[in-house]
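User: I'm new to structure prediction. If I give you an amino acid sequence, what do you actually give back? Let's try with this one:
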Amino acid sequence: MPRMSRRTVLRTMAATGAAAAVPSLLTACSGSSGGGDVSNAGKKLAAWPSYKTAPGAKPDLAPTEAGVQAGYTSYPADLTTTVKRTPGDGSTIRVMSVTFGTPPKPAAENQYWRAVEKALGVKIEFTVIPQADYQKKMATVMAGEADSFPDIVNMFSGYLLPREAQFVQKRAQDLTPYLSGDAIHDYPNLAGIPTHAWRDMGRIGGQIYGIPLERPVTGSTLWLNEGMFTAAGMKEGWTSEDFAAVARKATHGKTYGLGAASGSLFCNAVHSAAHNAPQGWAVDKNGVISSAYTDERHKAAVAFQAELRKAGSYHPDATSLSSPDLNTLFLNGTVGSMQNGFGAYTALYPDSKGLLTPAPAVPYNVDGMPGGAVAARRSFGYTILKKAKKERIEMLLRVLDYLAAPFGSKEWELLQFGSEGVHFNRGKDSTPQRTKLGEVENITNLPFRYLAEGPQVLFVPGRPEAVRALHAWQQKVVPVTIRNAGFGLVSATDVAQGTTLRALMDDTVTAVIAGRSSMADYDAAVKKWRNRGGDRIAEEFTKELAANS
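Assistant: Good question. You get back a string of structure tokens that encode the predicted 3D arrangement of the chain. For your 549 residues, that looks like this:
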């Protein structure tokens, strides 16, 4: 089998933002974080920024109100200009972000870095934190002095950071006066960030402290080796029994139908959604929130996965594989499927060329009921600003406004591909094609995309058939996505104990599926979870939901 390069794996990780399962964003780092009241219940709530579509290219495939993304089967021939003047003031700004790429070349040697600095009108001191080091680094930063805090900080959603909301409230700039309501129209590209992203980011103490990184409604997805699964009997309208049979048939020798990575609970998100279980938290018609752990459908999904594991359909290292290693096994044909974010498609299609055809799975039916799919948090982290004078904050917001330029703009092209003739050349269809330098100097290794970016669209360079297939898949799946009712809500108990309580249940689910524990152990863990604070979190979320309605 062909071997995958490290660059290919890292590019896929960067495209998906792949990491641990995404927890509640505004609940999270220890240190001098203070103890302010971060809940929104009983507070006057800042109005969400008034949405206004930023100028961009007209899509070939139309988006829908429900969340199907705009699709582009070709690269726009005429690019718009969304920023009329240089946003910066010539000063130096310090920024910090998570990265899924390799360390960038220093600014003095990096033409991409210098090109973006010139366009922004600032000097940039960029600290990039490898995803694996993010928690430790952020704990250090949050415990540091206020003066040492960077001007712009990406708060990555892949980890639950203790007392994050309190820290943000104490150390970051309250952006309400600059972004709430029509005030955001001073920053047209930021105004183009859809309201759903702001809602799922959430407020802190009723105020707006961040700028969200918008993501599509389709979240954790089971990516299939289409040829392998079709040969094993995959069909339209398949049932859970069909899925199990296909997974068994695709498994033979050292090839496995199902792959999973450490921390993914054997791809529990996808299977629990197919069983129509709540994704984290559910809300009933009376506005009362309850946990997935107490739902029989979630328990049934765990039992189903345990049977898949018992049948030998999972790769034997499913509890210890890293996400990059699993991606390599998928691309070289060792495993026929893996759970990843929907955004994985941007790297999966080019990286799998000549190896396989990737395809997102349509949920299987369970007991005659159409299966559900995972709805993503519409905000993949958020960006905060260091407290500063009004003029400084406005300048930093202009910089972020440039970074949030939409697809089809000259600003977007510079950020995504760098300088023409240096980092990319144009193909016959005007699509930018990276040069060798562009493979090294780019937005993956210098991740401006995690500071601010425009709304996500469907686009695969040179692969119009892939865009059409993904758009058609979203039309099927978006209507059955299951949203976590806890998105954007804050619970004091979850802030204090959520990490520990989630670890209790994650460890139990993994142990049951792996065959080390029984379903009776699952029931016992749920009881322990409820008594140790789970029920209290549900009550607090219910109050928060009522306050945000």
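You can read the tokens as a compact description of the fold. Here is one thing that stands out. Confidence is low (pLDDT under 50) at residues 1-10, 16-34.
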